[in-house]
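question for whoever is on the cluster today: can someone run the full assembly for these? two chains, 854 residues total. i dont have access anymore since they changed the login thing
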Amino acid sequence: MDIKTKAGQARGASGKLASTSAEERNAALRSIAQALESEGASIDAANKADLEAARETGLAAPLLKRLKFDVAKRVDCIAGIASLISLPDPVGVVQKRTELSPGLELTREACPIGVVGIIFESRPDALVQISTLCLKSGNGCLLKGGSEARNTNRRLYEVISGAAASAGMPDGWMQLLETREDVGAMLALDEYIDLLIPRGSNAFVRHIMDNTHIAVMGHADGICHVYIDAAAEVGMALDVVEDSKCQYPAVCNAAEKVLVHEGIAHEFLPRMKARLEGRGVELRGCALTRAIIDCKVAEEADWDAEYLDAILAVKVVNGFDEAVEHINRHGSGHTDAIVTADTAAAEKFMDLVDSADVFWNCSTRFADGFRFGLGAEVGISTSKLHARGPVGLEGLMSYKWKLRGSGQTVAPFSDGRMEFTHVDKGV
Amino acid sequence: MDIKTKAGQARGASGKLASTSAEERNAALRSIAQALESEGASIDAANKADLEAARETGLAAPLLKRLKFDVAKRVDCIAGIASLISLPDPVGVVQKRTELSPGLELTREACPIGVVGIIFESRPDALVQISTLCLKSGNGCLLKGGSEARNTNRRLYEVISGAAASAGMPDGWMQLLETREDVGAMLALDEYIDLLIPRGSNAFVRHIMDNTHIAVMGHADGICHVYIDAAAEVGMALDVVEDSKCQYPAVCNAAEKVLVHEGIAHEFLPRMKARLEGRGVELRGCALTRAIIDCKVAEEADWDAEYLDAILAVKVVNGFDEAVEHINRHGSGHTDAIVTADTAAAEKFMDLVDSADVFWNCSTRFADGFRFGLGAEVGISTSKLHARGPVGLEGLMSYKWKLRGSGQTVAPFSDGRMEFTHVDKGV
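^ ran it for u. tokens below:
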């Protein structure tokens, strides 16, 4: 079946999915959880085939670990589905209710976006999480996983779509894409696809964003800053920088840059150097930094680099304004933090820094849907439209306006015989 | 000044604008209203020059009427600014508040999108409305009006930006573009511009959507349907169809198609023909329609056409499913209505029709920001992301996540020494 046919099927099914009840979708989620349990052996076999093939091509150990879909990961996925079932139904939530005129009531109600195309890394648990998130939110989906996981993904697709179908979900709501060509073709299918969520390397996400007219949710770079203000408490600043940089350097919300106010640089930098070098971090400093501590040179390109590694670029700034300007120029709009005891400076920083997440006196690593309490996470968006920052189920929802009347026409409102009441009826 | 410089200035100013207080922005709006009053003579003179030039080029009378910016329109604009001042401040509204852990509080707060590029028709009052909406919502803007209004627009720009500057608004938040080339260049400035709002013909809006990576808010076609269900009350159906088609045929929320259930077609169609032909509407029918009433033939292309005129295409459908499928295939996702006494059918229609506005027993002409009670209107969006349907000030807002801590790091939450509390603190 070609991608256009698949996309058309998902589009057709998405309409029906949008009108299923929360009970029906939750029953399908339970059926999927049971099938992942009962079909465990065939899923294991498929994953073994993928792992063997990957070992033969010499896939690196960390990637093999991500590719592995063993009993423990399967149990986690099943627990994830249970927690998804327990979340309130996002479909049909009334967001506004207004009487326009007696007997003419307007509501704004959450509805699924429609069809979502998601391209994700070689981690089979991602397929389970994403497809069940889409089902919970009533969205059709086109899924393209990493090619190393092709056998596992195909088996998971069969198990999940079969279980959903047996629980009465419309055929075709979930489609599996298997080739790189399919991804290219998907970018042109704006007639069928409402939203793309690409997960993966910066270059890949940027490629998707630059080559489609479909809305894209996600982030390319994660160039996060910590700004140490003159009024920072040094011990706290050291803790925040260390956690932001070292707690998990390979992820998008890890800090890549530290900006230090010149008024505190002499006190802070030597202690930061001691602390971070103890954690194996390579420092790259501007000229003012290197006048205070010995470290490598930060080149101009360092300010725009996402290392995803134990490297930190350090710049001494002459004040608050330079820090904010630097972040807005070189940052990626993801997550940026200030450490300061000065409340006014902190609030001004959070207003002026144009990023999805703006933090005060805490680690950039908190930028995460689970930590934010959003439950299941779709991804992190650096767009300023629709969803921004960590995105939960809400990011998979649109809304529509429903107006329920009893024969009302506009003419009498237009010629002054009637007037709108516009009474807020609450939600 | 070239467009890139202008866009850069707007971007720079937008950061400052975002941190102004509601009082400061309202004071600037008051200053603008006063300037429109005191500078009336020079605005009139500029508009006279535009009107004279337009008459010489033989501009049609309705367009001349739109181009005219006389005392009455100026007074309306000033009243519009007064009502904008009275609206609650959209900036900084707290949308969520969660305690992640004692002393670590997360809020999601509304903030301006940043810089908005708006291209609008030759109606000088649009420049006043749009620029003041942007100011109220804290957004920088690039404005390109119709070239016929160039003298009026330039004078209005000088008066408004001057008044805003004298009230302390950051220089450059508002920029005027004057050439068609500027519009083309603007489409590539995704580094500076966060959102485009094109208003105008279908072809123009589609051209913008197809030629930029900047998010676009708006609608191309408005192909609105009224579906007359078997269980419709015929008198009501006639009223709704007449108003939807005839109350103002030249606008996007006027009905272009009527679908009629075969079970009611024999009763409904002759009466509809009498009613609409009495209003000068040309009917174009499918074969089944023409077996019942005498009218022109509806060709296949009619189902996808937006007439914006006193023409209505009519199709007899064999039931609810065919009606919904036809609307989702041929509609534009703008506004579609059902007339029926069957509540279950109405609710199913509103769930299954994938449009911004889905109406039951009322005219499609209600699809409008003012009628919806949203106050000032930015436009109508058929996108399913961000804002959908009539868009008020809310559509010009993004949000950011602010996390206020006291030195918290992720490590203790990661290794199990601490647990998130995730207490909803209300808003």
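summary bc i know u wont read the tokens: The CA atoms of residues 33 and 78 of chain A lie 5 Å apart. The radius of gyration of chain A is 25 Å.
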